[in-house]
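To whoever is on call:

I kicked off a structure prediction for a single chain this morning and the downstream step that reads the tokens threw a length-mismatch warning. I double-checked the sequence; it's 284 residues and nothing unusual in it as far as I can see. Pasting both halves so you can look.
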Amino acid sequence: MRIRAKSALIMAPLLIIIFLGGYFLIAGVFVLSLMAIREYLNAFNEKRLAGWVMYASLIVLYAGFLSIKIQGALIPSGILFMFIMLWVFVSLILSFLSMFSMRKRDLFQGMATITGVFYINFLTFHIVLVDNYFVTHPINQGGIVFSGFSSYVWIVILAAFGTDIFAYFTGKLFGKKKLCPSISPKKTVEGSIGGVLGSLILCGLFGWFFMREDFPVYIILGIAGSIFAQIGDLSASVIKRKIDIKDWGTLIPGHGGILDRIDSILFTAPLVFYFLCVTYMFII
């Protein structure tokens, strides 16, 4: 418990960045992605992935997004779509170019590089997209706009971390039936159900107090977000088992590295963004 408390303090700045939103959040997610890339590359160790591709892809993504964003508060959906497609094309080209060094990298190393580009850079970028498009009641203080508690990024965090916390304690108290023993032996069906209920409670309470007009959306995403958070967690476990490591890093006591802490967010953020795009399509 003491280790988890220390971990919570380390992650506390993330909550401040979410409250600030805007360019603060963009900078925070960019730094988070840089740290995650480093852990990913270190995890493969002697496999010699093309790290420069992952870093270059990340810089292109954020530099391009910012260059469009500074022209207006909200990027039109058509321009965003074209930009993302262009970024995907550039990232794939860079990834294949990295395999031109036939003696340095084989197909596995090339595919692992491409996977890292989209697993880290693309998925984490959805946190920025959620904040950019879905802040209902921003706070304006002296011309500086903050996202406050009206950003849907909160539901990403509540669903992911709520699932993790409630699944852990529910599994400890009531866990009997294994969920996926070959992937994650400690996870149980009871813990999984507890994680969904925990996410539902936290998202529901947050929606009731801060976003009551969209309360049904918070209920739906509280359930769906928890399911996708668990898929993200299990997917990370699959990768770690394939490359024979326990944790991505050692930065956070009791939780491993940054990637170990955000693996569930990687799947939850895109779910929230695309769900909201369909639900509130007229906003974009």
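Update from on-call: the warning came from a stale cache, not from the record. Cleared it. Sanity check on the structure: Residues 2-283 form one domain.
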